[in-house]
Amino acid sequence: MTVKIGRQSLTDQIVTELRRQIITGQLAEGAPLRQERLAAQLGVSRVPLREAIRQLEAEGLVVSELHKGTVVSSLSLEEIEELFEIRLRLETWLFEAAIPRMVEADFALAERVTEEAMSTGSVENWGELNWRFHEALYRPSGNTIAIRLLRTVHDNANRYVNLQIAVAEDVERELADHQALTAFARLRDTRRGVDTLRAHIQRVSRNLVASLAEGRRGKVKDIA
Question: In whole angstroms, how far apart are CA 220 and each of 86, 133, 160, 162, 209?
Fold first, then answer.
């Protein structure tokens, strides 16, 4: 008997949409996930919605809290720094392994994603474009498990990065780094490529944590 399986299940589609809303800030940290409202908004039943929420909880994007139900998770500054430390260690290793194996199709894909980001000029979908670019650089390494784990790290970090990448000069600097990374990969210059990637991740982490710290101090003062 032949069983037809769709390319993406309904649950996966719900996960994709809710993940997008969380990463772009449409569902901000601490926001409750009201199942009845979300089911109506997405036009789905609550069964696949509950399955999707369980998957998002496994990814760390949402959390179940006593007396609050399921809410979008909130990360401390220390946890955000830890995410970037994981990024730093995983990505430099993956990029170093990938560069000798990259072919023209890999370079072309990375360049197409960079051009797409430059042409849109929008930060709303920056997280997804950023991930697609980095995935294009690391996929040739062949380390599929590490890349799957890295996707979860990126998703958790990108919802905060989107808040930082909010002005044109930030976007321009990020894209300039992306162009440099692709160029060094083309040259098979592993040392300069990895050094550039390390500096790139460290700068984003440093600027993001400083910005978030200032914003959170401001909120505390407002409450006081």
Answer: 29, 36, 19, 22, 16
- The string of pLDDT tens digits covering residues 39-53 is 999 999 999 999 999
End-to-end CA distance of the chain: 67
Query: What one-letter code names the amino acid at 34?
Result: R
Taking the domains of the chain in order of start, what are their residue ranges?
A: 10-72, 77-223
Q: Tell me the sheet residues that pair with 62.
A: 72
d(CA 44, CA 16): 14
H/E segment holding residue 156:
helix 144-164
SS3 content of the chain, % helix, strand, coil (to 5): 75, 5, 20
Please tell me what DSSP assigns to residue 70: E
Contacts of 165 (CB under 8 A, 6+ apart): 123, 126, 171, 174
- Both tokens assigned to 161: 């990065």
The CATH code of domain 10-72 reads 1.10.10.10
CA Rg value for the chain? 19
Query: And the tokens for 11?
Result: 């649950």
Q: How far apart are CA 24 and CA 18, in angstroms?
A: 10
- Each residue of 85-123: pLDDT tens digit? 999 999 999 999 999 999 999 999 999 999 998 887 556
Report the C-alpha gap between 134 and 114 in whole angstroms.
10
Q: Taking each helix axis as running N to C, give the angle between helix 77-98 and helix 190-223, from 0 to 180 degrees, rounded to the nearest 10.
A: 170
The CATH number given to 77-223 is: 1.20.120.530
